[in-house]
Every structure is written in C-alpha cells, then in structure tokens.
Write a structure and sequence with these properties.
This protein is mainly beta. It has one domain (2-75). The chain is built from two helices and five strands; from the N terminus they run βββαβαβ.
C-alpha cells in the first residue's frame, strides 16, 4: 500500500460470494483530498458532491495501466510506501 496526504493505493481482493474463493485482485487508487479539484468533474455531478466533500477512487485490473513512482523515486517525498 502507498499513502500520502492526497492519495492512497490499496490492493483489494475480490472473492466469489458463495464460496469465498479468490477471484481477482484489483488496485483502488484513491484521491483523499479533492478540495483543490474543479467544481465540474462528472464524478462530482453523479455523486452529488462538491470538491472536498469526499474521496475519488479509480479501480484498476490486471489489464489497466497507471504511472506510479517507484520507492526510490519516492524518497524525500511526503508519503509512505508499505
């Protein structure tokens, strides 16, 4: 997991509801502070929120791509890599 003041990255295991067997692992990348965001993102309109009133998360599967700094690049930055 990576987290800092503004973002968190969580691994999330999906399981088959009846058996509890693992199906897949996804990543949830969450923006924890949306207060500096503009007023008009579609997500805010759909959720009836304004900037700063909630978190915004993206779900990534094994076929999605996200550019994330590695641990070495994170040295000296705010945040924790676990």
């Amino acid at each position: 997991m990576f987290r800092d003041t503004y973002q968190c990255v969580y691994p999330v295991d999906l399981v088959e509801p009846k058996t509890g067997a693992p199906v897949n692992t996804l990543l949830a990348i969450c923006h924890m502070d949306t207060s500096p965001w503009p007023e008009n993102p579609v997500a805010f309109k759909l959720l009836k929120l304004r900037p700063g009133q909630g978190e915004a998360c993206h779900w990534f599967t094994q076929v999605d791509l996200a550019w994330i700094l590695d641990g070495e690049s994170m040295q000296g930055r705010h945040g924790v890599v676990q």
